[in-house]
Amino acid sequence: MLSPAKPTLVSPLVLRLFGAFDARIGESPLPPLRSRKGLHLLALLALRQGRGVEREWLAGILWPDSDGDRARVSLRQTLTDLRTALGPHACLLYGPSPRQLSLAHSVDSDVSAFDAAIRRGDVASLEEAVGIYRGPVLETWVEEWVAQERAPRDQQYRDALATLGESAAKRGESGDAARLLRRLVTADPLREDACRNLMRAVADQGDYAGAMQCFRDLRLRLRKRFGSSAEPAAATQAAYKAIRAEARAKGALSLPQATATPQTVPSLPSSVRRPLPLPLTPLIGRESAVADVLDALAVNRLATLTGPGGIGKTRLALAVAYEGAGEFLEGAFFVDLAPVAAPADVARAVLAVLKAPEEPGRSSMEALTAWLNDRSLLLVLDNCEHLLDACAELTEALLSVSSGLRVLATSRQPLMLPGERVLVVLPLSLPDPRHPSSNWVADPALLLEFSAVRLFVDRATAARADFAINKANAAAVVQVCRRLDGIPLALELAASSVRSIAVEVAAARLSEDLSPLTGAMRTSASRHRTLQATFDWSWELLTPAERLLLARLSVFVGGWTQEAAEAVCGSDRSEMHSLLIALTSLVDKSLVVYEEKRPTPRYRLLETVRQYAAERLYDDPEGADVIRARHLAYLISYVERQEAVVHGEHQADVLDRLEADHDNCRAVLRWAAAETSGPVAAVEALRLAVALLTFWMIRDHAAEGHERLVIALARHTASGLTDEASAIKYRIRALNSLGTYEGLLGNLHSSRARQEEALLLARKSGNRLAEAGSLNNLGNSVGSLGDHPGAIQLLSECLTLAQELGYDWGAAMTRTNLGYQLMHADREAEAMPCFNQSLGTMRRLGDKFGVARALDGLAAIARRTGGLVTARGHCEEALALRREIGSHREIALSLGSLARVIAEIGEKDAAGTLCRECLEIRREMADRWGTAEGLEVAGELALRAGDAGHAVFLWGAVDTLRQEIHTPLPPPQRAARDRQVASARESLGDKVFEQNYAEGRNTSWKDALDQALGTK
Hints:
This protein is mainly alpha-helical and 1016 residues long. Among the domains are: 13-111, Orthogonal Bundle (Arc Repressor Mutant, subunit A), CATH 1.10.10.10; 172-250, Serine Threonine Protein Phosphatase 5, Tetratricopeptide repeat (Alpha Horseshoe); 272-424, P-loop containing nucleotide triphosphate hydrolases (Rossmann fold, 3-Layer(aba) Sandwich); 437-519; 887-1013, Serine Threonine Protein Phosphatase 5, Tetratricopeptide repeat. The chain has 46 helices and 14 strands. The strands form 4 sheets. Strands 9-10-11-8-12 form a 5-stranded parallel β-sheet, with helices on both faces. β1 (13-16) and β2 (22-25) form a beta hairpin. α1 (37-46) crosses α3 (68-86), α22 (544-553) packs across α25 (607-617) and α32 (725-744) runs parallel beside α34. It is flat, with a radius of gyration of 35 Å. Residues 1-9, 252-274 and 520-529 have low confidence and may be disordered.
């Protein structure tokens, strides 16, 4: 047995485990070891410095996949290697007993020093601990045991910072407190108590602007993490408001007061002040906006709230007036300009609200400027849009004579004055349409986090006392809120309809038109009693050119670019300049929303505005169908241009561009599906539908693509224009596309029939490129049905043809597909070069989708031949690529493959996490083929975890599903499953095995998914 080394003043061995691992002997790095396991061993001992660590435990941690004897041999070899590297200092590694290892106390280890300082717990020791911390323990290491060592020390570091920050604050050392708390917020950005304490510490230094910026930074982080509706906790918001009030009380953020004293400029007596209008309903979803407007008014003398009618500008302005009135000597005053018709009457209306005297011989403007001279008040000018010039002139004049005046205007377009701060009032927050609906349907209370839903529920409850959001109506409530774009007026009108109709009925009607919003609100201004009246008010303020453009823009359902507007809404090039002027004006008037998106800015209409404008399209001098036909023609050109580059290096961007215009494509396909659109539109619709194949397939729209293509193909057949060469070309592509979709949807026999028809038509027409595509697709269908030799023959023929045609991408994809069929036929040696050649071509082209498919094949071969590290690398790269291009079906495929690999490596918990994410995607997509693959993985993991009964149950469910969709396991996978089945049968015994298997066979795939996910 070795004896421990005696402590020395300066240790020859220095270990740094915080951040990146570093080991030094004196000033020199530790000599290279034969494997990283030596460093792992050294780190494990350093984390338990001075204590005896069982050799058996070390062997199990470092070699979890090896049996006991082999692991112990590996430990001895690694220990010898490490001691050799330590040279004369090898005695620092000693054995307190034959079964233990230990690292001497004398070794200089930052973790040991940190742990000791934390244990002592006094302020000086905690300062020492945070000084030692350089980052998470072994920051770049990914082994499971590292995470268990890392997490508690990260928490201790954060707790130490919190304690030190609090201590410094109590001592009045706000600078030190802020420094420590900034480190804490950096380490734990969403820790709200730390943010509150940091705000206080920064404010105590007199930096109120910095303190409030801390709050805004926190809110931004929350919204990036949890969505645009996320808000800090109530306690944090209260702290922010308190600091803001304190700042204003001290003058740090206060509004400039009048230069004259209250004695020289008499305050308006409270007895004659006109009270602010009293709201009849609570303010919902605008709480933080009120604070933002007040902050804007603290540094800007004029702020204008802009937005479309019904968005809630007036209600927000009124809330700001109530909140901010106390900060002005004279208070706040609210002037409703909607009833004012003549520009000359604007000043008179303001005078009336202020109760200021009109003087003989003076105009209203002169009387107003004289009275306001250096008074301190907040003036709200509501509804300026129909009197813009007069309101701008008045505001400029008043601000020029009164330094204590602040003006808050509401208008559908800005006043366009120097120094004006324009604040766009946005719709209320909505549930993200990309978020799985199953979560909030299971717990409808989650929906109340979104302000649009809160407003609807509040107003619906007022209309009908027994209304409540529940599992039965949650989806309908969300549909209503989304359909109405979160516009408060529209939501209030829709909510009032629940007096007489169910919310599900209202949602269904709103999917067709705005009829549920026709009811009037008697207590509202006439222009706000119905949504129709609100839009009529805006329409009357437009020029003829703006009206024509707005009506034509209504054909765009999902927004548009400038290029699209020019192509669809302009008759010829001479109109383009005036069109852009009108478009800019519509943005200024809050009827069109401009969004600065990359790579191309976009415009859009709120859905309620679009539907109103669509009714006006029928008055278009060229005819509504002419505009819609232009829309279809433009989209064909645009989508085909994107299709030509979708397999290149900018694949993700191309797919994002197509996603942005997906709703537009849906709209024109719906229009073209109607017989009234004519035979030419039917042919063009088929052309558009086939151009969308790659997008629909990669971005998980296979079911929708199939449905729309079936309709388009039927319309094309009925059009009578099917014999032209171009029509035949699109028909072949349509049949191939339908076959692809049906394969993805699990309808394999139908898929094969479509591909056979496409191949026959391609050969008959002499279209060799279409023939190559048909051979590839038919080969995939035949292989999916279990005929691997037949698939190999078809794909080999396709590859030869693609090479003859110089079709590089087609040849590469065919090689990938051929590789899979060869692998399924146990011909892995022939499959490997197929995958490698395909991978090379796809990398050269920049096709991430194609690269991932080839990597899948290489990973599968590596896993079968024992190359688990290689397989893991391929799977991880494929997963990253698929996340980048946003293909959830493919992401699930990678998750399942990676789960299998790392389960074999021994990382069972991580494998389970990946498998659950895979199954959740399959469930959300209702993907039967993918579910079969996912449940296979889940069964394999269950067996590895020792739950043979659950594994057998899942296999039974999978076998039933595979029988339903006619997708047998390929022979190699069947052989692997048979080995697993034999193991499970031996573990359970025949009787229990058969019981579990029979239960699985009688369980639907959806229920099996729920059980695999633990949700049933």
